[in-house]
Design goal:
- The complex is a heterodimer.
- Chain A is an all-beta fold.
- In chain A, about 0% of the residues lie in helices and about 50% in strands.
- The model of chain A has no long low-confidence stretch (mean pLDDT about 95).
- Chain B is about 0% helix and about 55% strand.
- Chain B is built from no helices and eleven strands.
- At the A-B interface, strand 5 and strand 10 of A face strand 5 and strand 10 of B.
């Protein structure tokens, strides 16, 4: 199975600070069809996960553009430019290139 | 507006079975994959499998072979997951999550808490 390693496990930030989360895969996530199926999710406390970014860098409809995703192959990054209070929660990367689909262990974003 | 409405909390006994539902609205149910995902403290999120309601095709995580069975009722736009031979290790929150137009895991149900206890 593909292992997704997320770092850091915990991130403390102040409002307005910019932060990054890394997601590294144990194998390339480039599908033979040319797409890279790496998404980012946010789970706020008491809520189901919410899709933020799909196909590495595409912003889901309704998601603020302070969120951005980048990367290729095995290395991916989620950036938040100017953290807001509503951004607090646990961020997960998830790959659906190789079955079984797998999730990173999560990065908890909290207020400093 | 797309909504996935899951059935409520379940408290079940060891060795029994449970069937969780996920009713979809706001989109064409038969045209998009529906996933089931488990969230356990300490184990994070795990993908159980998907079903394609249009033809009933399924794909499972081998880890859940024999544990989970995915079905749908197209007449009511509802997806189901049955879990069998339950043990305490199956206690978790279970989510349904739908794809939409190439956006994998775009929509999520609110989650169903399953507690296995005697």
């Amino acid at each position: 199975d593909v292992v997704l390693t997320q770092t850091p496990p915990t991130l403390s930030a102040t409002i307005g600070q910019s932060v990054s989360i890394s997601c590294r895969s144990s194998q390339s996530l480039l599908h033979r069809n040319g797409n890279t199926y790496l998404n980012w999710l946010l789970q706020r406390p008491g809520q189901p996960p919410q899709l933020l970014i799909y196909l590495v860098s595409r912003l889901e409809s309704g998601v603020p553009n302070r969120f951005s995703g980048s990367g290729s192959g095995t290395d991916f990054t989620l950036r938040i430019r100017g953290v807001e209070a509503e951004d607090l929660g646990v961020y997960y990367c998830v790959q659906s290139t190789h079955a079984p689909y797998t999730f990173g262990a999560g990065t908890k974003l909290e207020l400093k | 507006q797309v909504q996935l409405q899951q059935s409520g909390t379940e408290l079940v006994k060891p060795a029994s079975s449970v069937k969780i539902s996920c009713k979809a609205s706001g989109y064409t149910f038969t045209s998009h994959y529906m996933h089931w995902i488990r969230l356990q403290p300490g184990n994070g999120l795990e993908w159980i499998g998907w079903i394609y309601p249009g033809n009933g095709n399924t794909k499972y995580n081998q880890k859940f072979d024999g544990k989970a069975t995915l079905t749908t009722d197209r007449s009511s736009s509802t997806a189901y997951m049955q879990l069998t031979s339950l043990t305490s290790e199956d206690s978790a929150v279970y989510f349904c999550a739908g794809n939409y137009e190439g956006h994998w895991f775009a929509y999520w149900g609110q989650g169903t808490l399953v507690t296995v206890s005697s």
